Amino acid sequence: MWTIANQLKGTIKFPGLGFEIPPQAEFDLDTIGREKAEASAQLKLALDSGYLSTVRKTMMLDESELQKIIESRIQSIKANLVSEIGELYKEKSTAASA
What we know:
The protein is α+β, with helices and mostly antiparallel strands and 98 residues long. The chain contains three helices and five strands. It starts with a strand and ends with a helix.
């Protein structure tokens, strides 16, 4: 998600990109395509001039990168759970033998 905000008291129009932003409103540039937005000289000028500000810009991942991140996180969670379960069994067996 790449959200920008209009900092002006008037509407900013981007006819080349096919959208406009009312005064003090926000707009998600990913709705028109990140590559198209990043390539726009109009948009860059508006951001550099302070007419627009970036509210939030998150990283774009392709599906394979996202899958790798998810799998890595799952493995990490599994390892933590196995460790915690091992500690619980260890505590239980120590308490039972005492």
